[in-house]
Amino acid sequence: AQTVTQSQPEMSVQEAETVTLSCTYDTSENNYYLFWYKQPPSRQMILVIRQEAYKQQNATENRFSVNFQKAAKSFSLKISDSQLGDTAMYFCAFIPNNAGNMLTFGGGTRLMVKP
Amino acid sequence: KAGVTQTPRYLIKTRGQQVTLSCSPISGHRSVSWYQQTPGQGLQFLFEYFSETQRNKGNFPGRFSGRQFSNSRSEMNVSTLELGDSALYLCASSGGFSYNEQFFGPGTRLTVL
After folding, report:
1. Model confidence over A65-112: pLDDT tens digits?
2. Which of the listed residues A89, B12, B74, B95 has the most CB atoms within 10 Å of its CB?
3. Strand order across the B74-78 sheet
4. Who contacts B65 (Cβ-Cβ below 8 Å, separation ≥6)?
């Protein structure tokens, strides 16, 4: 069984600054995918960024980037130039390859971006 | 492209009743997954349907069931409702592969009294 742990229940950051959200996971799988999903107060969950475990290069999407450390089973999310619209719950999620669409989520980190 | 839609958005039931929630995936998506979100347990996977077949199942009692129709629309049913079933139920659709992004609906907020 896989587990995903987000050790920071809440975080805050000033607008325009950088913040890093932590995520660790436990699995015996070698091939898998990791995701960060964002759930704003409106509740619609949206994908922020995705990482394939077999790729050593860290994924980036505009202001969002990850630090993927496969040996350490760590997958942190860095948000640069934070904006008020980044205020949301952020969930780290894991899925083994060939496991259909059965995501395992972490407990979430509530991020508040302050003006 | 229209997004994932879920109906109803809000529902109030009493203990012992049963409830059916509906999810319409993005056109062309064959996989629909259901998740339960509660403050205490977080986001938990219920089940996934792919081409009308249950492909994966989470660790929930048999009171939770689902099905998928030929047009990929999915329903989940909860029988003999308990207070602990109060939650936000999210469905997500995707192309069906593990690397695919899952597109989530707005959820159905179920309150059991």
Report:
1. 999 999 999 999 999 999 999 999 999 999 998 888 899 999 999 999
2. B74
3. B5-7, B19-24, B74-78, B64-68
4. B76, B77, B78, B79
Record: contact B50-A100, CB cut-off 8 A: yes
Q: Is A84 on the interface with B (CB under 8 A)?
A: no
Phi, psi of B85 (to 5 degrees): -85, -5
């999310």: which residue's tokens? A77
**A98 inside 8 A of chain B by CB:** yes
Tokens standing for A59? 């994924």
Q: What does DSSP say about strands A64-69 and A10-14: parallel, antiparallel, or unpaired?
A: unpaired
* pLDDT tens column, B58-68: 999 999 999 99
Residue A106: its pLDDT value, please? 97
A48/B contact by beta carbon, under 8 A: no
To test the contact with chain A by mutation, choose from B88, B97, B98 the residue with the greatest count of A C-beta atoms within 10 A, namely: B98
The whole-number average pLDDT for the span B70-76 is: 96
**A108 touches B at CB < 8 Å:** yes
The distance of Cα A43 from the centroid of its chain, to the nearest Å, equals 17
